[in-house]
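In response to the reviewer comment on reproducibility (Comment 2.3), we provide here a single inverse folding case reported in full, input and output, so that an independent group could reproduce the run without further information from us. The structure tokens appear first.
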């Protein structure tokens, strides 16, 4: 049981390092899309999210879940399904916070993203990479 718990913690820490990096990349893409391309946030948020999470998957597969029993292509399909669902929910929640609660775009995105980071770790570790 101790080794299982230790494995959870190590995978979570590794996932977090790459997740925080991907999230920073996501915010950078969001800033560029909103500022320089003048895209509306309901397009910029999911676009930046999908690009950043695809990069995140590659890094996770190479460095964290290299021992996964799931094939790479099938794993990416599962990952993309989880992330597209998350992208839709994140966009909906960010839109609600921006439009109705008058929260700024970046604080809303950071708050919602933090919540979904934990959810994504659980879903991907358990159901996609089948390691926890």
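Designed residues, in position order:
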């Amino acid at each position: 049981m101790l080794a299982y718990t230790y494995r959870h913690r190590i995978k979570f820490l590794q996932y977090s390092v790459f997740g925080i990096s991907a999230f920073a990349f996501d915010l950078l893409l969001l800033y560029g899309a909103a500022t320089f391309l003048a895209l509306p946030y309901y397009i910029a948020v999911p676009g930046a999210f999908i690009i950043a999470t695809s990069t995140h998957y590659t890094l996770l597969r190479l460095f964290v879940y290299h021992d996964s029993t799931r094939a790479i292509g099938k794993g990416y399909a599962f990952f993309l399904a989880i992330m597209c669902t998350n992208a839709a929910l994140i966009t909906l929640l960010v839109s609600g916070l921006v439009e109705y609660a008058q929260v700024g775009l970046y604080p809303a995105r950071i708050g919602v993203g933090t919540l979904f980071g934990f959810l994504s770790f659980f879903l991907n570790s358990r159901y996609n990479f089948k390691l926890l």
